[in-house]
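Quick question, first post here. What does this chain look like in 3D?
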Amino acid sequence: MGISRKLALSSSQVDEIMTTQWNMRIASLGPEMRINLTPMWFGWAGGRVYFFGRGQKIVNLRRNPGCSVIVDRNEAFPELQAVMIQGQANVLEDAIEEDNDLFLAEARQQMGKKYNGGHGQPAVEEPPPNQASAGGKDRRWVVVVPETMVTWDNYKLSSLR
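> Answer (accepted):
Ran it through. Tokens below.
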């Protein structure tokens, strides 16, 4: 049983959630076919999810780029709104791949604004873009290109009764 399309978010609601919520969770397939579920800060640009990560997530996504991402807001069930994306992750392996990505600069700019002051430092009036770049064997930008997107807005549940 799937989620009723009557509960779907509009495209403007999707963009609003994806550009204002701080945390996403990404599920990748780890060693021994175990699901690795990790919260991450992220950007949303060109209809794609961007994040900078390291460690097991990067190793997993290189081996198997299939993944799921969920971004949600509100705590109470009748108020829950969410965007779930299933797609393919592309690990940007170096500065050349970063420079060639069509939307990474926009995602960096957005993340600089969204997370301004988020590491405990004071917020600044004109935050710089996120400057992270590929380093070591597994510190990388990842782009999740959606294949399937399912959204829901539980505020609409009462109208379905």
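The mean pLDDT is 93.
The chain has one domain: 5-160.
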